[in-house]
Predict the 3D structure of the following.
Amino acid sequence: MKIIGITGGVGAGKSSVLDYIEANYDCEIVTADDIANEIKEPGEECYEAIVKLLGKNVLDDNGYINKKKMADAIYADEKLRDEVNAIIHPAVIARIKEKGDAARRNGRPEFFFIEAALLIECGFNDYVDEMWYIYADTNVRRERLKNSRGYSDEKIDGIMASQLSDEEFRKNSDAVIDNSGDMNVTAYQIDARLGGRDGR
């Protein structure tokens, strides 16, 4: 049983890589975004602290934290954003490791994947068995973000500037999967790394 970290810059296509892996391998996939959403639900560990910090205005009619309302509340206030991150980030890291530890104890599935943009910054190199950097050419990433998310050049510039450089990603990774072009080429690299598909 192997734990593999999946990281890379915005627009590199980490989701499409994971979709392929999920369809073809015996694996469990945990993403930081999914965990962050999970721990903000009513009754979960971050819910009360966030509502206390941001107020009940961020709740929807059913008492759930509304992602857009929360984003609007912290968008223009860096201090507030840091306070929210201080609540969420440690809890996300702890929950991911909790799930990974359970998989290790069970010895299954064959592969446990963790996807997050900040895996390297959060020290996951010491936790995973392998760190994979999903790479795509900058121009390809820009086109994907404009077409799929409608991002402006200014927004893309800001996000890219806040992330690790290509050099840093490569230096801290055990494998580089080039996802700049055809998915068949990407799949070949994944299969070579994982030892072939399980026939599903």
Remarks:
- The chain has a mean pLDDT of 93.
- The longest strand covers residues 2-7.
- The chain has nine helices and five strands.
